[in-house]
Design a protein that fits this description.
Structural class: mainly alpha
Radius of gyration: 22 Å
Strand content: 5-15%
Order of helices and strands: EHHHEEHEHH
Number of strands: 4
Shape: elongated
Largest sheet: 2 strands, antiparallel
Strand order of the largest sheet: 1-4
Number of helices: 6
């Protein structure tokens, strides 16, 4: 399955939060144990990919940084902390290039779909986990169930107001 760099970045960020929530809850449910196992199954694939992304980001930093002529060479301009300097236009172009990298570059992964889906996952988490550790069909089903529950609650509220 192919996923974008952005999806991998989002996944990497929220799995740490989710693991902390599960670990802080004390005794883990069967679903939580299965969910943690799925994270452990897919995570090793991402180490090398994240290194590659960091290399590409470093290349973008250099490509868009301001330079000056020193003798026969073009040298990068850095501030007193060693950070690259950018013109306003180059900074905007750098930001656009980063977004393009994250949104358009894809990587192939081997998903591992868990049957243990914690009930308290947000819609955002479900979307990020979809195709990596949660089967997209399960995400669709859960989202439909949530939508139906919301409609039922709205109907009950409307009826109680009458």
């Amino acid at each position: 399955m192919s996923i974008s760099y952005r999806k991998l970045l989002n996944f990497s960020q929220i799995i740490n939060q989710r693991q902390a929530v599960i670990n802080a809850s004390g005794k883990k449910t069967k679903e939580e144990l299965k969910f943690l196992y799925a994270i452990k199954r897919v995570s090793p694939q991402f180490t090398k990919i994240q290194e590659d992304i960091q290399d590409k980001l470093a290349d973008l930093d250099i490509d868009f940084a301001s330079t000056e002529k020193k003798g026969n060479d073009e040298v990068l301009i850095v501030d007193d902390k060693g950070n690259y300097m950018y013109t306003k236009e180059k900074r905007k172009a750098w930001k656009d290039a980063r977004n393009e990298l994250f949104d358009n570059e894809t990587i192939d992964i081997t998903p591992y779909f868990t049957t243990g889906i914690p009930k308290d996952l947000s819609d955002y988490e479900l979307e990020v986990y979809s195709g990596i550790i949660v089967d997209p069909e399960d995400v669709k089903r859960l989202m439909n169930e949530r939508e139906a529950e919301l409609e039922k609650l709205e109907t009950e509220v409307e009826q109680s107001e009458e």
